[in-house]
Specification:
Elements lengths: L1 E4 L14 H9 L3 E5 L10 H6 L3 E3 L2 H5 L4 E3 L6 H4 L7 E4 L7 H9 L3 E4 L14 H20 L7 E3 L2 E3 L3 E5 L3 H12 L3 E5 L6 H6 L3 E2 L21 H14 L5 E4 L14 H5 L6 E4 L16 E4 L2 E5 L8 H19 L13 H6 E4 L2 E2 L5
Parallel strand pairs: 1-2, 1-4, 2-3, 4-5, 5-6, 9-10, 9-12, 10-11, 12-13, 13-15
Antiparallel strand pairs: 6-16, 7-8, 14-15, 16-17
Helix pairs in contact: 1-11, 6-7, 6-11
The structure holds 1,4-dihydronicotinamide adenine dinucleotide.
The site of 1,4-dihydronicotinamide adenine dinucleotide (NAI) has 37 residues, from helix 6 and helix 7.
């Protein structure tokens, strides 16, 4: 099969859809890989690393995807790029299917079978394809570094000849993939860390990382939904959550908020009154910015300062650590590609398959999202 890896063109996107390790494995299995010139450069991967792995390099998007059976990207293609995708080919990338109806229609019109990387099921079988988790790991790590870099203080406790510095306090909201990595990173930097989540099952995970779990009456198994995700809370429970968080915030230097419910706006966990209760100089890094933010004052892609508190509406943090983010994303894509090749040398799309069926948003000339 012929697999194409174009250069990403979305603003600030520095990742690439496959890395040389994945290329080498696919070439060894008898496939031909074409990489667009410079596709890995912003992730620190030169063209030579791809050719060394057995890929050929094409000068532009059109030359890269010509004759491709599968195109591996990070961000969704532009309309101009869709027009160049070979009819009947497969596409793997983030597609934001719920917001991109026109894109899906255009892909279906070209008879492209498109796999949305954000729709990978959270199951043991699909774990190694789960790019939401792999990229959230990077984002959780980077969120702490970003916030720490903005604080007017150090995070570790230091005893020096010039006096003793008290350790910084970090509070992590939502202890899923990004949150647990944020906790671990803040602990490594020497902060005193606490965390809150509505799912009681994560209490032990939080504590095993050396952080304190903030208790609230709303923390109950009733908040657990399918696939390890949370459900939306009833108003009364939501108020209990706000009360518990509100008590903690005045003593906190850095908040990393990651609470999410799939397919829903981010739960509102920090009101503007709660921001006003925090010390001037403290920082909130809101990873849920793109789905509306966990903080009432968050604006996606911007840093807002209110009452001396900086609220960072972080977007696409994974792309700011492009080499390792690409390495993990590329492994997720490779595993999906291998899954689609499972029955031999050619791609087979079986929409009855649990993984393929959940991720394929267009197939056979039709849009199949949202699923019936
Ligand atoms: P996840 O689903 O693994 O974790 C979210 C956690 O939030 C879950 O543990 C859930 O129980 C918890 N939660 C839900 N409602 C809550 C509430 N009312 N109070 C407290 N906790 C609550 O999600 P993951 O993969 O860790 O992603 C977290 C967020 O980060 C998502 O919004 C995701 O889109 C975002 N993200 C942002 C990136 C960026 O660069 N800004 C990059 C990667 C992820």
């Amino acid at each position: 099969m012929r697999i194409a890896v174009p250069k990403e063109t979305a603003p600030l996107e520095r990742r690439v859809g496959l890395v040389p390790d994945g290329v080498a494995r696919l070439v060894k299995a008898g496939h031909a890989i074409v990489v667009e010139q410079g596709a890995g450069v912003s992730a620190g991967i030169p063209d030579a690393a791809f050719t060394h792995a057995g890929a050929t390099v094409a000068p532009d998007f059109a030359g890269t995807v010509a004759g491709a059976d599968l195109v591996a990207k990070v961000q969704r293609p532009t309309p101009g790029e869709v027009a160049l995708l070979p009819e009947g080919s497969l596409l793997v990338s983030y597609l934001q299917p719920s917001a991109q109806r026109e894109l899906l229609a255009a892909l279906a019109a070209r008879n492209v079978t498109a796999f949305a990387m954000e729709l990978v099921p959270r199951s043991t079988k699909a774990q190694s394809i789960d790019s939401l988790s792999s990229q959230a790991t990077v984002a959780g790590y980077k969120a702490v570094l970003l916030g720490a870099g903005m604080l007017p203080k150090l995070l570790p406790m230091l005893t020096t000849a010039a006096g003793t510095l008290a350790p910084g306090r970090v509070f992590v909201l939502g202890a899923g993939v990004a949150g647990l990595q944020a906790i671990a990173t803040a602990r490594r930097l020497g902060a005193i860390v606490s965390a809150f989540d509505v799912r009681p099952v994560v209490r032990e995970q939080v504590q095993s990382l050396g952080a304190a779990f903030v208790e609230a009456e709303a923390v109950s198994t009733a908040a657990e939904g399918a696939g390890g995700y949370a459900k939306e809370l009833a108003d009364e429970q939501q108020q209990k959550v706000l009360d518990a968080i509100g008590k903690v915030l005045p003593a906190i230097d850095l908040v990393v908020s990651t609470a999410q419910i799939p397919g829903r706006p981010a739960p509102r966990l920090i009101t503007k009154e709660m921001v006003a209760s925090m010390s001037a100089g403290s920082v909130i890094v809101d990873l849920a910015a793109e789905t509306g933010g966990n903080c009432e004052l968050t604006r996606a892609g911007e840093t807002v300062v209110a009452h001396g508190v900086s609220i960072v509406g972080a977007v696409n943090l994974a792309s700011t650590v492009p080499l390792h983010a690409s390495q993990m994303y590329g492994r997720n894509v490779l595993t999906l590609v291998q899954h689609l090749l499972a029955n031999g040398g050619a791609f087979q799309v079986d929409v009855a398959d649990e993984i393929t069926g959940a991720m394929a948003v267009t197939h056979g000339g039709a849009v199949r999202f949202p699923a019936a």
